Amino acid sequence: MNTTPADTEAPAYRYPVDDLIGVPAKLYVWVFPLVVGVVVWVGWMMTLLGLLYDDTGPAGLTVLLLLALLAGAHLGMVWWGRRRGGDRPWELPVVVTAALVMTTVVAALAVVIDPQGQWRPIIVVLGHWAAVQVAVMVWVRAPSYRWRMVFALGVVAVLLAGVTGLIGAQAARERARQRVDLARVVGESAQPIAVVEHPDWVLETVWASENDERFTVLYAPRDGEVAEEGFRLHLRTEP
Q1: Deepest of 51, 94, 136, 208, by most Cβ within 10 A of its Cβ?
Q2: pTM above 0.70, yes or no
Q3: Which residues contact 203 (CB under 8 A, 6 or more apart)?
Q4: Exposed/middle/buried for 77, CB within 10 Å: 0-12, 13-18, 19+?
């Protein structure tokens, strides 16, 4: 019996959308990203509070919880896909898990890039949800069945890289604006401002009160044991 390339590939082919049929798949794609987003935001807040007291416990707990949540859901969906007898049952979990991991990394980078940013919980939660929706949509509609997962994750990676760049650009513009405003306030101040002129201390930032009457200058040690312990020197100038 003669066979053609189409005959040999047809039995293994299933349209990608078939993998989204069933309540577990719908919950995994539509609800699970929201849960992960909430966990990321709550863990995020706990980590920032812990760092104020030099406590890294909340950060470690958040990472462990996220790993357990992602791994449990991932393995559960792989098992469910194999039970249904679908082709490549591991692809959908890989797409969703990778999209969530990349979004979580971008969320962490956003805090590092712009610590003073107003990161509302709705942004973090919907960001995770939107990343998964884009990844799954591209995965379903990819022009190549063989490379559909690469297409999906590539699109998400490019979009998240763009978001990271926008966050960085916005943070840079905000810092530049603050420097200009601060320079104006300092220049217009009628009173002297206390400073430290010593090679072992490095200027980090300057704050001005709302009425521009009090100034706080923050210094950090350049190196040594004191620097490793996170010590900072605050100089306050009041009228």
Answers
A1: 136
A2: yes
A3: 195, 217, 218, 219
A4: buried
Higher pLDDT, 31 or 57: 31
Q: What are the tokens at 91?
A: 């692809």
- Cα–Cα distance for residue pair 8/21, rounded to 1 Å: 26
The per-residue pLDDT for 237 is 65
HSE-up (13 A, CA, CB side) for residue 87: 12
Can you give the pLDDT at residue 209?
66
* φ and ψ at residue 232, rounded to 5 degrees: -135, 150
Written as one letter, the residue type at 142 is: A
CB 66 within 8 A of CB 40: yes
User: Distance of alpha carbon 58 from its chain centroid, rounded?
Assistant: 17
Average pLDDT over residues 207-235: 63
Distance CA 36, CA 65 (A): 10
Most confident of the ranges 47-61, 150-164, 182-196: 150-164
Of 39, 59, 40, the C-alpha closest to 49 is 59
pLDDT at 44: 84
